[in-house]
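Extended Data, panel c. Modelled sequence:
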Amino acid sequence: MTQTSMEPSGVTGDVLRLPTGSPRRVPVAAWTKWAVRAGIALIYLFMLSPLIFVVWLSFFKDAIITFPPSGYTVSWYVNAWRNAAFANGFLLSLQLAACAAIGGVILGVAASLALARYRFPGRRTLGNVLLLPLVVPGIVAGIATYLFYLRAENALDMDIVGTFGGLVIAHICLTIPWTMRLVGASLAQIDGTIEEAARNLGAGPWRTLWRVTLPMLRPAIVAAVLFSFIVSFENLELTLPLVGPGKTTLPIAIMQYLEFNLDPTIAAVSAAQIVLLGIVMLITDRFVKLSQVI
């Protein structure tokens, strides 16, 4: 009896024959991978070059910036540390940014939850008004806030312009939009059935908010605190019309120093700000991975 062959068409033994004209996978050359990596490295270098240049400039020995420098020194950091305007401005900016970040995040989270979870007349208009500081130029916002404070002082018979409280309120208005954008985007991705399940299991509204909703929003909240702190700490346009006599933030102190001096002291102060903000980001990444936030 003749044995019937059970091999499929195009197969001989253990060798698979591909049909003629079928596409074949061409391996990527090694040089292509290295070119891609080099391109990415150049992009990162281009983005970080201003920071690298500022830090490098802060160690120049010459008071007048020249290339190549005649030497390197840390005396400009000592000069910045001994300058009372920089020290006082740094402390005021630090306090102002911390208060603005905390206040802006609290109000921004509340506003985001209200706009995302409830329907009421004027909801869209309210959301657009709260986001206006993102599109209004800073100097325009600063002058408008100054004029509003003057009218409020006449109506309330109390000092607002030049006070720390007035600065905090203005900076909170500046930081609320950042919180709303970040938290609002996270709320849109949260499954509402999880909150409904918590309510069905007996959790009240506040317990659901504290134990379910806010933990799910933690990456967005941390990002909002980080960006709000940076925006408030570095702000100049809004702060300039509102500071009182003898009180300056660090950006204003830098601007006033540049009116009469042009040496690497400003680069030293800027390098210190870069290090401070880098530490803030590293601490943030320790508790909440920035890859989950950005």
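Residues 84-117 form the longest helix (34 residues). This feature is highlighted in the accompanying rendering.
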